[in-house]
């Protein structure tokens, strides 16, 4: 579910909003609830001024999509750069049909276009091999225009595969920002700011405890957001307690609980299909650790 969830919190209070997204990313309209990455977003905004193509690179679960959409795109739309509130913003992924851009020779002044390609790794996992070169050429052609700025977000484990597309690889190598791990203070902001925006009270110590559980954990952000979403669903939409967090097992069991809730109601045949699909979606790295991958439907 992409949109922020709502629930009834009582007969006199109407519907209350959950500011946490679980396993989904924060999109442009979720910007008021996105926090903790202010310094990184400021770097991205500064880099798009001069870069024809800017690559945002990070590990799975590092929050690239949220940073680009709820951070960078939202800042551009708010006019953080002079006149950027008038820019035309196009957000897409390789799994979608490549959007049409304004004609390069259109008469009269035209607003700048910010072309954002999220999940660029889909160029390798979704597009057939014969279409990948064409997509790379489309991207580089867009980046070569004076009225277009391109931003791509790509998982770090697919970064090296871009080298087969020489021109695109050169552009990415020249203009890359890495999405690193968040500090404990940034993680606390990622809990406290959206809660305050949704008028949601946190028990003292909850944000600090969650940040301590997540800091330094690979892919910890989706775990944190899923744990917070679970806490919100458990309560009345007004208050999140440290006791509930500890009783539910915190971030370490958040995704397992979510998966079990989805898996248990399935029929035995559906569970068999689900196991097969999930195994196809997993790879193991050189250390024997599982890593997430996207698989084309034809492979399943």
What would a concise description of this structure say?
It contains 11 helices and 11 strands. The protein is of the alpha/beta class and 300 residues long.
Comma- or semicolon-separated keywords:
300 residues; alpha/beta; Helicase, Ruva Protein, domain 3; Rossmann fold; 3 domains; five-stranded parallel β-sheet; two-stranded antiparallel sheet; 11 helices; globular
CATH fold call of the largest domain: Rossmann fold
SSE string, helices as H and strands as E: EEHEHEEHHEHEHEHHEHHHEE
Count up the domains: 3
The CATH superfamily name of the largest domain is P-loop containing nucleotide triphosphate hydrolases
Rg, Cα atoms, Å: 21 Å
Give the overall shape: globular
Strand order of the largest sheet: 4-5-6-3-7
| SS elements, strand count | 11
Topology, element by element:
Blueprint: E1 6-8, E2 15-17, H1 38-47, E3 53-58, H2 64-77, E4 88-92, E5 113-117, H3 122-125, H4 129-143, E6 148-155, H5 166-174, E7 176-179, H6 184-197, E8 201-202, H7 206-214, H8 220-234, E9 239-240, H9 242-247, H10 254-263, H11 268-280, E10 282-284, E11 290-292
Parallel strand pairs: 3-6, 3-7, 4-5, 5-6, 8-9
Antiparallel strand pairs: 1-2, 10-11
Helix pairs in contact: 1-2, 6-7
Describe the structure.
- Helix 1 crosses helix 2 and helix 6 crosses helix 7.
- The protein folds into three domains: 6-24 and 182-258, Helicase, Ruva Protein, domain 3; 37-179, P-loop containing nucleotide triphosphate hydrolases (Rossmann fold, 3-Layer(aba) Sandwich), CATH 3.40.50; 266-299, no CATH class.
- The chain is globular and about 60 Å long.
- It contains eleven helices and eleven strands.
- The chain has helices spanning 38-47, 64-77, 122-125, 129-143, 166-174, 184-197, 206-214, 220-234, 242-247, 254-263, 268-280; strands at 6-8, 15-17, 53-58, 88-92, 113-117, 148-155, 176-179, 201-202, 239-240, 282-284, 290-292.
- Mean pLDDT is 86; it is low at 7-15 and 293-300.
- The strands form four sheets. The chain has a five-stranded parallel sheet, sandwiched between helices. Strands 1-2 form a two-stranded antiparallel ribbon.
- Helices cover 40% and strands 15% of the residues.
- The chain is an alpha/beta fold and 300 residues long.
């Amino acid at each position: 579910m992409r949109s922020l969830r709502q629930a009834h919190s009582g007969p006199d209070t109407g519907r209350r909003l959950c500011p946490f997204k679980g396993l989904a990313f924060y999109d442009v309209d979720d910007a008021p609830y996105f926090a903790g990455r202010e310094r990184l977003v400021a770097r991205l905004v500064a880099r798009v001024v001069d870069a024809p193509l800017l690559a945002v690179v990070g590990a799975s679960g590092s929050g690239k999509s949220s940073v680009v959409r709820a951070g960078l795109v939202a800042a551009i739309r708010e006019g953080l750069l002079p006149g950027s509130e008038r820019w035309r913003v196009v957000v897409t992924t390789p799994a979608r049909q490549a959007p049409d851009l304004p004609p390069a020779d259109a008469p009269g002044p035209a607003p700048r276009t910010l072309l954002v390609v999220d999940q660029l790794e889909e160029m390798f996992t979704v597009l057939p091999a014969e279409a990948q070169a064409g997509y790379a050429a489309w991207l580089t052609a867009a980046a070569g225009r004076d009225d277009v700025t391109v931003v791509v977000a790509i998982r770090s484990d697919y970064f090296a595969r871009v080298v087969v597309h020489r021109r695109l690889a050169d552009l990415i190598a020249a203009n890359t920002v890495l999405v690193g791990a968040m500090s404990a203070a940034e993680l606390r902001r990622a809990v406290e700011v959206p809660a305050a925006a949704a008028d949601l009270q946190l028990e003292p110590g909850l944000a600090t405890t969650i940040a301590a559980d997540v800091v330094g954990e690979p892919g910890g952000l989706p775990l944190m957001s899923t744990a917070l979403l679970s806490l919100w669903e458990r309560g009345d939409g007004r208050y999140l307690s440290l006791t509930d967090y500890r009783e539910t097992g915190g971030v370490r069991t958040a995704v397992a609980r979510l998966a079990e809730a989805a898996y248990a109601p399935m029929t035995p045949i559906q569970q068999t299909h689900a196991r097969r699909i999930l195994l196809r979606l997993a790879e193991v790295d050189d250390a024997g650790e599982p890593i997430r991958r996207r698989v084309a439907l034809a492979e399943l």
